[in-house]
Amino acid sequence: MPRPSHADTPGLQLSLFDSPPEPTAGKTPAVGLSAPPTPPTRPTPKPTLPVVPAAQADAPTPPSLAPTPGRSTRSLLVGEHRIHYELRRARRRSIGFTIGPDGLTVSAPRWVGQGDIEGALREKATWILRKLHEQNERQRRVQAARVQWRDGTTLPYLGEPVVVVIDPRVTEPTLNTRGEALPGLPRLTLHLPLPQWATPEQLRDVVQSWLQRQARQLFEQRCAHFAAQLGVRVKRLRLSSAQTRWGSASVDGTIRLNWRLIHCAPAMVDYVVAHELAHLREMNHSPAFWDVVRAVLPGFEPVRERLRHEVLPSLE
User: Fold this and answer.
1) Closest by Cα among 112, 98, 131, 107 to 47
2) So where are the chain's domains?
3) Which value, in Å, is the radius of gyration of the alpha carbons in the chain?
4) pLDDT of residue 199
5) pLDDT tens, 47-85?
6) Are residues 172 and 166 in contact, defined by beta-carbon separation less than 8 angstroms?
7) What CATH number belongs to 154-308?
8) What percent of the chain is predicted at pLDDT more than 90?
9) What's the first-to-final CA gap in the chain, in angstroms?
10) CB 261 within 8 Å of CB 268
11) Among 33-37, 139-143, 171-175, which stretch is predicted with the lowest mean pLDDT?
């Protein structure tokens, strides 16, 4: 499932959150958190021109984004806003809009004229400008989430800030917890068995190794918890570093969970674990699948929405 990586674009996580169309009869449904099927590639006549944005909603019109350097873009002035976009011609039936870290990409059938494309852009300008603004804000949050590896740095652990402290007195990474959070001070402190002159790379490697161990331990516990409730068996649990998925499930009982989930609140971890284990009952995203998830996590929708917008720290 977006990646969950700190720089994931929104589209990378949609397979976890969106229900793909029902599979065509006679075809095997997608396993795990695969993306929805691609549009048919068969050329069609030009009767009408449907426009397919990812979503539609009215919202205040924010400022448009500047074009991305080095990207071949066109632009269209809509009111007081100039929309920059990259045009791609494809064998498809409709005009589609994709908004990612590089801005807006418009995919259009080869037979559609530039006037029709600009008309579609004007029609959906409110949605496009709102999404560009949201993407810009997300990129700002991504930049702010970059970890500066030094004594006293802070990063999220299970939804809480943890302060990283170099402490030569300890022999292994040790997590200390205050009984009560104090105003302006994190409750958690991670002490590292490193000398004061340790390099940023050493800090990063020790912390990342500790986080991965904590992730495996937590995932094993939560998999056992939900497997018992769902009546399924997890034959193999693997940690994933995937860039575009939080997790996946295979028909042989293998569950893969992205170790970066350890940064997220426990409720988000539970949602991903329950989601993947539910696939061992329903290898699709049909209504029956969501009923299985709901059976062990009633009211999971707000947590799923929070996870959709989660920005993870950059550990590079």
Assistant:
1) 112
2) 46-144, 154-308
3) 23
4) 95
5) 334 444 444 334 443 444 555 665 668 888 888 888 889
6) no
7) 3.30.2010.10
8) 48
9) 21
10) yes
11) 33-37
